[in-house]
Structures are given as C-alpha cells and as structure tokens.
Specification:
CATH architecture of one domain: 3-Layer(aba) Sandwich
Strand order of the largest sheet: 2-7-1-8-9
Oligomer: single chain
CATH topology of one domain: Rossmann fold
Shape: globular
Structural class: alpha/beta
Helix content: 40-55%
CATH superfamily of one domain: P-loop containing nucleotide triphosphate hydrolases
Number of strands: 9
CATH class of one domain: Alpha Beta
Bound molecules: adenosine-5'-diphosphate, guanosine-5'-monophosphate
Distance between the termini: 14 Å
Mean pLDDT: 94
C-alpha cells in the first residue's frame, strides 16, 4: 500500500497538567511518532535545551517568522509568544510520521480550523488543587506566573469544547497508555483503511 500521510496529533491542557511527561511516556512506548519543537520568546528554564525543548527566539525573530508565514499557528501565553514551525510538520507528515504538537488552546483552535482532520486531545490533572501542587513542585515559575497559569487553566477549561478526547493525567503511565490507545483508534478509522477494501476488490 502507498505510504500513508502522518497524522497531526494536538495535545493541549493547562500548564503543569503533565503534557510533557505524558508525551515522553508515549514516545517511549510507540514508534512512528515525532515531536514538533516550537519557537518561543520565553527564556529557557534550567535543563531546557535549544532545539530539543524549544527554539528560543527574540520578539523580533518571532515576528519575522509570523511575517514569513513560517508558523502553522501561533499564540501569546502568559506574556510570551509560542508558535509551531510549519515546514517541519509538513515534512514529517509527508514522510508518514505522526506529528505531536504540545500547544495551548488558541493555537489548537487555529490548527482545528486549518487542518480539520487533526486529532485534538485535552490533557487535564485530576483537580485544580493537584495542578497547583504540580506547578509549585516543578519549581520553574515565580509565584506571579503560577497565579497567571492557574487563571489561564480555568479559562482554557471553558474554551475546550472543540477537542475530540480528554485524558486525565492522574497516573502518567495510564495517561500515556490512553493517548496511545487514541492514536491506535484514529489509525483504525474507516477513512484511514478503506483502501484495503478496494485492494481486495481489485484481486
Ligand atoms: P506540562 O508539560 O503540562 O506543563 P509537565 O509535564 O512539566 O507539565 O508536568 C508538571 C509537573 O508535574 C512536573 O514536575 C511533572 O514531573 C509532574 N507530573 C506530571 N505528571 C504527573 C502525575 N501524573 N502525577 C504527579 N506529578 C506529575
Ligand atoms: P511552557 O511555557 O510551560 O513551556 O508552555 C506554556 C504553554 O504554551 C503550554 O500550554 C504549551 O502547550 C504552549 N505551547 C508550547 N508551544 C506552543 C506553540 O508552538 N504554540 C502554541 N499555541 N502554544 C504552545
């Protein structure tokens, strides 16, 4: 059969919900996936690496990417800009790889409009109290940023009605397993596999 174009899998959810943790768990258990590294104007956190976690850029560089049409989507989040490089996503999908995007809700809405067949998953913690514990436990944000991220989480919950799936990240392994199952189900859709039926008819 001809090589299938890879799927676009959007993972969103409040900051601190555990998206990075769950995506890392998923990538350990499933082949044929790649992660789209975003551009951001946010400064690197300790331990973050250029090109692996983000492409760290200035506001001017980010604006240039926007002007050049180089971003599939972009949004501002708690005072910083974030965006998905269009070329990388296109290249990997063409190679047949499923591409994971870890992006917030405004950007996800842009992807939904531009790529209606994208699979949209919203990852949430078991409660907002647990979210606050995780944000504090991560030790990466000042108090004011933690407050902004919690306020933003409440707003995102209200705007999340266009997602296809919700994964509750109580236990990270179970959450990765659920995300894995979602991808498996999406790859088994009739639309994905109907060419197998025509191949049989042609025999
Ligand atoms: P996000 O990418 O959504 O911002 P992270 O993956 O950075 O979130 O997780 C935020 C913090 O919560 C990290 O310190 C991470 O180790 C922790 N964490 C992630 N998943 C769980 C979980 N299921 N239970 C407890 N802690 C978790
Ligand atoms: P953080 O600063 O915690 O790494 O990310 C903050 C938020 O920005 C998270 O919700 C994350 O999903 C989102 N984000 C990361 N990259 C992108 C991107 O390229 N586009 C959009 N729209 N959001 C992004």
């Amino acid at each position: 059969m001809a090589e299938q174009r890879g799927k676009l899998i959007v993972v969103s959810g409040p900051s601190g919900a555990g998206k990075s943790t769950v995506i890392a768990g998923l990538m350990r258990r499933r082949a044929g996936l790649c992660f789209s590294v975003s551009a951001t104007t946010r400064p690197p956190r300790p331990g973050e690496t250029e090109g692996r976690d983000y492409f760290f850029v200035t506001r001017e560089e980010f604006q240039q990417l926007v002007n050049d049409g180089a971003l599939l989507e972009h949004a501002e989040y708690v005072g910083n800009c974030y965006g998905t490089p269009r070329d990388y996503v296109e290249r990997k999908q063409t190679e047949g790889l499923n591409v994971l995007l870890d992006i917030e809700v405004q950007g996800a809405r842009q992807v939904r409009a531009r790529v209606p067949e994208a699979v949209m998953v919203f990852v949430i913690p078991p409660s907002l109290e647990e979210l606050e514990r995780r944000l504090r436990g991560r030790h990466t944000d000042a108090e004011e940023k933690i407050r902004s991220r919690l306020a933003r989480a409440r707003a995102e919950y209200r705007e999340a009605d266009f997602y296809d799936y919700i994964v509750i990240n109580d236990d990270p392994e179970t959450a990765a397993e659920e995300l894995d199952a979602i991808i498996t189900a999406e790859l088994c859709r009739y639309q994905e596999r109907k060419t197998y039926l025509t191949e049989v008819q042609e025999l």
